[in-house]
């Protein structure tokens, strides 16, 4: 399903959100790929880094959100609106990057082997998904939604690292899977609420009108403050687990 994305809100934490992208693409070894694809390119700020690293490559960028595609195009990225579910690799695709996207795509476990089967030998597929659906930032949202009788649609879903390793290795690819928990030092009032506003809270935002959404946030804020207390200097530590995989077609 398609939900509303807010490029400006998403970019508010762009430094923290860019770090896993850097850690992911650091494990991609391609030197002169013919075509580089960014699946779920978002506002295009990270796609631009792919274009800069592989300046000889055709850069293909797709995203299902009209707002994100507009933001990417405003940045000079030739992005188009499309669902990753409908994407198939062009024969010259040597690198595929999908960063913080597949958690929104429930059928991605079927898509990954299909994409790898269609990629040429030597191509690399690099993915990163959040692995924090059991963290308070998510469970508190689900608890409050349940208390409010709210049925959420479009919540994220991911596998554990070993499942991705098995799934990708079963295609015959060479596989590199790892996880990192980042401890983001956030500042300002209710920074975790602000962070999840553009991601984990989207299904809530889509289910409620403006007034009900404001009440939901007001009830959620003190619970998040308890789970993620601010230190005396104003810093709030926000642990965030992420799962990475790079598969190289053999
Ligand atoms: C958390 S953002 C990540 C954006 C970018 N990859 C980055 O790392 O900053 C998730 C993006 O995935 C896009 N997205 C979610 N589901 C999608 C789908 N089924 N097909 C294409 N894009 C999708 C959203 O529109 C959003 O731009």
Q: Separation of termini?
A: 34 Å
Assess the beta-strand content as a share of residues.
Answer: 15-25%
Bound molecules: S-adenosylmethionine
Series of H and E elements: HHEHEHEEHEHHEHHHE
Structural class: alpha/beta
Number of helices: 10
Rounded average pLDDT: 94
Using the CA coordinates, give the radius of gyration: 18 Å
List keywords for this structure.
250 residues; binds S-adenosylmethionine; seven-stranded mixed beta sheet; 7 strands; alpha/beta
Structure description:
It is built from ten helices and seven strands. By secondary structure, it is an alpha/beta fold. The chain has a seven-stranded mixed β-sheet. The longest helix is centred in the C-terminal third of the chain and has 18 residues, at 210-227. The protein is globular and about 50 Å long. The two termini are 34 Å apart. The site of S-adenosylmethionine has 20 residues, from helix 2.
Which SSEs are present, and which pair or pack?
Elements lengths: L6 H5 L2 H12 L9 E5 L7 H7 L4 E6 L2 H9 L4 E3 L11 E7 L8 H11 L5 E7 L5 H12 L13 H9 L4 E13 L4 H7 L4 H6 L2 H18 L8 E13 L2
Parallel strand pairs: 1-2, 1-4, 2-3, 4-5
Antiparallel strand pairs: 5-7, 6-7
The structure holds S-adenosylmethionine.
Can you summarize this structure?
The protein has about 250 residues and is an alpha/beta fold. The protein contains ten helices and seven strands.
């Amino acid at each position: 399903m398609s939900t509303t994305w807010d490029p400006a809100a998403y970019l508010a934490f762009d430094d923290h959100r860019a770090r896993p992208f850097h850690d992911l693409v650091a494990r991609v070894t391609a030197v002169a790929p013919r075509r580089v694809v960014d699946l779920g390119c978002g506002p295009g700020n990270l796609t631009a880094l792919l274009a800069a690293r592989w300046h000889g490559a055709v850069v293909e960028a797709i995203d299902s959100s009209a707002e994100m595609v507009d933001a990417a195009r405003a940045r000079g990225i030739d992005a188009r609106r499309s669902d990753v579910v409908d994407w198939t690799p062009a024969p010259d695709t040597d690198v595929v990057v999908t960063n913080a996207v597949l958690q929104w795509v429930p059928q991605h476990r079927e898509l990954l082997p299909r994409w790898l089967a269609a990629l040429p030998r030597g191509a690399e597929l690099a993915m990163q998904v959040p692995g924090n659906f059991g963290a308070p930032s998510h469970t508190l949202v689900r608890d409050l939604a349940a208390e409010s009788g709210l049925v959420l649609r479009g919540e994220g879903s991911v596998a554990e690292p070993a499942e991705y390793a098995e799934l990708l290795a079963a295609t015959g690819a060479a596989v590199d899977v790892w996880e990192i928990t980042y401890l983001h030092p956030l500042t300002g009032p209710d920074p975790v609420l602000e962070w999840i506003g553009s991601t984990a809270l989207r299904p809530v935002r889509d289910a409620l009108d403006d007034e009900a959404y404001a009440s939901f946030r007001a009830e959620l804020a003190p619970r998040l403050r308890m789970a993620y207390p601010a230190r005396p200097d104003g810093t709030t530590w926000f642990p965030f687990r992420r799962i990475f995989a790079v598969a190289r077609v053999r």
